[in-house]
Structures are given as C-alpha cells and as structure tokens.
Hints:
Layout: E1 13-17, H1 21-24, H2 26-37, E2 41-45, E3 58-60, H3 67-80, H4 86-92, E4 93-94, H5 96-103, H6 108-115, H7 119-131, E5 135-139, H8 141-144, H9 149-162, E6 173-175, H10 182-187, H11 204-214, H12 226-234, E7 240-244, H13 248-251, H14 255-262, E8 267-272, E9 284-287, E10 296-299, E11 304-308, H15 321-331, H16 341-351, H17 360-363, E12 368-369, E13 395-396, E14 415-420, H18 436-441, E15 447-449, H19 451-457, E16 464-468, E17 473-480, E18 488-492, E19 521-527
Parallel strand pairs: 1-2, 1-5, 2-3, 4-13, 5-6, 7-8, 8-9, 14-18, 15-17
Antiparallel strand pairs: 10-11, 11-12, 14-19, 16-17, 16-19
Helix pairs in contact: 3-6, 3-7, 3-9, 12-14
Amino acid sequence: MTNSIGEFENSGCIFVIGSNTTACHPLIARRIIRAKEKGAKLIVADPRNIQLGRFADVAVTQRLGSDVALLNGMMHIIIKNGWQARDYIDARTEGYDELESVVEAYTPERVEAITGVSRDDLARMAELYGTHPPAALLYAMGITQHTTGVDNVKSCCNLAMLCGNVGVAGGGVNPLRGQNNVQGACDMGGLPNVFTGYRPVTDPEANATFSKAWGATLSDKVGMTITDMVPAMLEGKLKALYVIGENPKLSDPDWNHFNHALKKLELLVVQELFLSETAQVADVVFAAASVAEKDGTFTNSERRCMRINKAIEPVGDALPDWDIFCRLSRAMGYDMSYEGPEAIFREIASLTKQYAGMSYERLGIDGLMWPCPDANHPGTPYLHKEQFARPGGKGKFHALAYQDPAELPNGEYPYYLTTGRMFAHYHTGTMTRISEHLDREQTTGYVDIHPRDAGDLGVKAGDVLVLRSPRGRLEAPAHLTDSVEPGCLFLPIHFGENPTNVLISSEAVDPLAKIPEFKVSAVNVEKLVA
C-alpha cells in the first residue's frame, strides 16, 4: 500500500474495486465506513453486489474482467471535464499524452457495451473521484487474478496519478493483501527474482553483498514462479518441492493437472500447522509452530513491521519456521545458525535499506512503517511524497487497451464463473475449518446463482448443482441470491469437498506476473438428477 490504513478516515473519496472488503478485510472496511460517516464519498465497483456497496454513493457491477475498460472510461470523462491534476501531471509524471490518446477511444457508450456499467453511473464515478481529493483507491485479488492483472493494476495507478492522488495523505493506490505477512514475505525475498528489499538476484552488486553476508556463492539465476513449477514437475525438470504454509492442492488452478504433476515428484516436503490436503500426500511433514508459539515480526498491508511475542511453548514436536530452516540447512551442509529471531532481524536491518532503522526495541507495540532508513527515522506513512521511486523521480503513465479475459462464455459453457472468499473462512480453510465456531457458520461449499437463472434451470435453494468446465466437474448445493448477476456464478474457495480449482484453467495466466485467472472462467451448470 502506498498509504496507511488510518489515513482512509480522512480521505475525500474512497474507490474500492475488486475487493469484497467487509468479508475479506473487515477492519479496513470499518475504516471505510467511518470515512463515509465523516463525509467521504464512496465508490464501489465489483462484479458482485457486495455488502460494502450498500454504503456507497455509487456502486456498479462491471462484467468480469472488464476493469481496464471501466478505468479507461473514468479517465476519459475526467479528462473531458478538465478534472485531471494538470500541474501535478506536468511536474511529477511522464507518458500522459500517450495515455490521453488511448483513453480518448473509451467513450461512455463503448465502456457501457464492454462493462455493462451505465453511462450515468460511469459519469458519476468519474465526477466523485475526480472532484473530491484526496481520493484513495483500494483493490484486492478481484483486480490481480486475471490474465490482464498487471494491466489492471497499472490502470489503477493511471487513474490515481491522473488526479494527483499519489504521494498525498489520504490518497494512494492500496492493494489489500491476502494474508497478514504477504507484504513481509515479499520484502524478505519471497519471490523468484529478488533478495530482500527487492534487490535483483541478477544485479552483481546485490549478489556480491548477500554472498559476502552469508558466506556462500549465490546463484544469479531467476527462479520459477508457481505456475512455472507445475510444467517443470511434469517434464521431470523439477524433482522436489518444499511447500511452506501453503495448500496448493486446493489453491492452485486445474486440480487434475496439478495433482498429476505432484505424482511426478521424487520428494514432496510440507511445513504446516495442520495436516492440509497437500500435507496428506507429502513424503515429509515438518510440524511448524503457530503464531502464538513463536517470536518474530510480520509486515502487514500498510508496510508496518510489527513484533509478535510467544505466548506458549510450541506444542508437541512443532518448531518455529526459522529453526526448521536452520536445522535443514545444517543437515544439508551449510552452517546456518542464529541465536534467535532478534538476531535474524538485526541481519535483516543490516541488509535491507527499507528496514535499516528498525530494531526490536524501536518496533515497540505499534511497529514502524518502511521505509525507515535510520535509527532516528519515524517511519513512512505514505510513499512518493516528493518524488516517485522510479529513476528520475517521475511516475509513469501506461497507455493500455482493454483485452478480453482468456475464456468467455460460449455455447457449450454459457455461464461466467468467479471465485473468492466468504466471511467465515480463510483461503483453503486449513485453519478456519479447524474452528468449530467458524465451520458452523458454513460447513460446505456452495454455488451462488441468481434466482432468474435458477428458475430457468428448475433449481431450488439447496438443490445440488453440477458445474463443468473444460478442466473438470464439481458438485455443490445451490444458494439463490441476487449478489451475483444473471449469467454469473460464484464459488467460495475454502472447501476441499467442493474444490473450486477443479474448474479453473492453469494455462490462462498473466504473462508478466504469472498469476492465474481465478476470477473468470466459463462453465455450464445443471441440476443433479438423482
């Protein structure tokens, strides 16, 4: 996130797109509602009629995968009405003329035809965002999990820069992370192409720095993303897989394809709290300590690094993750040894400029937001205040044309399918379905279907539906609701009994980020006949 969560309460406008915030990020949703109570304008754009839309000044349900067209249409209207921040654009950005040329073609009429959003609603969205600064834009996986996910994110940035909303308090472009330490994992090099602090493994200076610090010759080769690993497993190029805190049997696309790839491995190691679906088929399982059983830090969505303090000793044979890594490393011949988490954090600060001014003592109760470059720095609530982080200090507009999703409804598969979370459960249910109270809220998967579609199919609430895609078949009970539009179905992702990823393509991925298109598939549906 470019900005901090607390700033939202002082925003003039909040634009939420591709995020079911009340269900997936309820504490942030409360901040949004407080901002609305203080007078902020609220725009909500989501293919489903989500709860947050009830509080919005304007809420729209754009067609699945049409976000670039929607955002281009808003920018078209903003430019036509002179609501763009001209001085800001001239002083702090580049590439504006190319952007203006592309969005010129996204007239309200054309955008309505692509997105299904009416011209009047589009105009209202553009007016609210363009005339109520500072405006904060919030998005989640409804923006990223597409074959055009990178373009979707860049379009969000285009809109924010167009109205001068980057580098100001209460504004910004703010991705809502899917788990509590996604940001921290990325900061620490949990990506195939970077060391900590996003320093490329291909950069000779960075490689030399880390090689010296760790007393080893480190590879300068970029690793594989998850979607690259599966073909490598099938081809026999990847022979062992080490899975840490992940349940890819339920979370990776194309269940049948992925499970076939798993069987090709010579070794599968899983490090996990509970015996997840993936852990059940592992050759080796390392029992990891839970958050209550270890010390350390995490860095949340707003870049805030915070302490966690051990409340109890690890149960049974469980160990903290860092201890497991060290023991495994020593067994493999590299003497990785630390006194404990604080010593590891000191090393992080010494090698990662964004964390250089942090220490356990300074983190205290509230933590610090990076960048925090020295011991006297208070942390950074929002980024790009005076200049952008790019070389030259200017933000770059990207002129982007709309592209269809990889898979659209057709004669054989006439329905749109989208996937996501519901309020009571979390990801693949590894933890939440262990809780009796949470599992009682929703004990099985289901299919959200519009009453009109249900009527056409002769389906009543609770009837078992059969969904098919080119990848596979799934059964789940029908839940009749107008939260989905006619012609569109929704499946929650949490339930191993109804594995949503059976239906999702592993081939439809963003060419740069390699993220699968979880949010758009084509399926057919019928009532199960006993």
